[in-house]
Design goal:
Elements (H helix, E strand, L loop, with lengths): L1 E2 L11 H8 L6 E7 L5 E7 L3 E5 L2 E7 L3 H8 L2 E8 L2 E9 L4 E4 L2 E15 L22 H9 L3
Antiparallel strand pairs: 1-9, 2-3, 2-6, 4-5, 5-9, 6-7, 7-9, 8-9
């Protein structure tokens, strides 16, 4: 698949992406990529219920308090989220509004400003290629408590 680049960055989440993130279910995985102090990428997976869409320009994520990703967000205030599902490939580049903050014991949250959204769509030459499933967790219990706490911040 080739990226379809707009002349200027799209800093607003499309309604389709918001609906996908807000859908119930903790089995869908979202790839989060941060950069460590040596500028090496670090990849982690979040479940859809660990990401809250506050607006078209603002996401909130929950992550382990002592995770490498939390430390990376303290050091470098950027993260890229990648969503993959049936007929969906999307990359969201973000900037942390401030470092991770306590959410509950062992868990922190970070508010992210959306800077760029890229939808990957097939070209004519790739017309028969398509994603048929996304990344999924097996046996993971849904975490409605995390989603509710992320939603309640600032309310």
């Amino acid at each position: 698949m080739d990226f379809v680049y707009a002349p200027t960055p799209q800093s607003s989440l499309p309604d389709r992406i918001i609906a996908w993130i807000r859908s119930k279910g903790g089995d869908n995985a979202i790839v989060v990529i941060t950069v460590d102090g040596s500028m090496r990428p670090h990849v982690m997976l979040l479940a859809r219920d660990e990401v809250w869409v506050a607006s078209h320009h603002h996401l909130r994520i929950a992550l382990g308090e002592s995770s490498q990703s939390a430390e990376n967000l303290r050091l470098r205030a950027s993260a890229t989220l990648a969503l993959y599902d049936a007929d969906l490939a999307c990359f969201i580049k973000t900037r942390a509004m401030k470092g991770p903050q306590p959410l509950q014991p062992g868990t922190v949250y970070c508010d992210l400003t959306v800077e760029d959204v890229r939808l990957d769509t097939p070209t004519k030459a790739e017309a028969t290629a398509r994603l048929v499933t996304g990344l999924r967790f097996e046996g993971r219990a849904e975490r409605a408590d995390i989603r509710e706490k992320l939603a309640d911040i600032g309310s």
